[in-house]
Amino acid sequence: MDINNSVALITGANRGLGRAFARRLLERGARKVYATARRPETVDLPGVEVLPLDITAPASVRAAAEAAPDVSLLVNNAGIQTGTDLVTGSLDAVRRELETNTFGHLRMIREFAPALARNGGGAIVNVLSAMSWFGVEGGNAYHLTKAAAWAMTNGVRLELAGQGTLVTAVHLGLADTDMSAGWPVAKISPSYLADAALDGVQTGSAEVLADQWSRDVKSRLPLTPEEFNAAMDRALAALTAA
Predict the structure, then answer these.
(1) pTM (2 decimals)?
(2) What does the alpha-carbon distance between residue 120 and residue 226 come to, in Å, rounded to a whole number?
(3) Catalytic center residues
(4) pLDDT tens digits, residue range 122-141?
(5) So what's the pLDDT on residue 15?
(6) What average pLDDT does range 223-241 have in this prediction?
């Protein structure tokens, strides 16, 4: 898919990765960029077309699809992290993360898939995480939602292949956003992540591993659970000690 002259819609485009996606799409020649947010007044990027959108609300998603029938590139970026564990944490918080990070993305795909088909197939970018593949105390609800979103992405890729829609999963460790502000470690810039994802779309890639952290984590998946957890403990200790 050619980014130039595309019509893109980005969820959570008011800050962080979403804002970087919108800015880079404009700079790379997108014909139109729909920048969406639950509070549209917080979108401050010149040149975009702003739409209100709450991906957890079916009526809001449906209204966005009706307002943007020309979309050829959907970027599912919006997400939350509550810092909740699975055994002792709030089930309401776990459900809220699932509703946003997994079902919210799926709801967007279901509503926009017909428009993508009408517009030649197009592409979907799902912003996932290296935490699709590992858990950590204080973040296991997030791990659950990203693992589920990874599986969902793999499933919809198969289901949408027949209409010519590329589905690209983007994994990263940490980007320099508000969500990662409490981690004093090396992070990639939002613009770097956006470019890596858009380059992947241009080349027809089903998966983008945007940084060394995500590449390292995925390379450990063939290990046994014991070996994998030990390797991750060492990697996390080295990361926080750096």
Answers:
(1) 0.94
(2) 46
(3) 142, 146
(4) 999 999 999 999 999 999 99
(5) 93
(6) 90
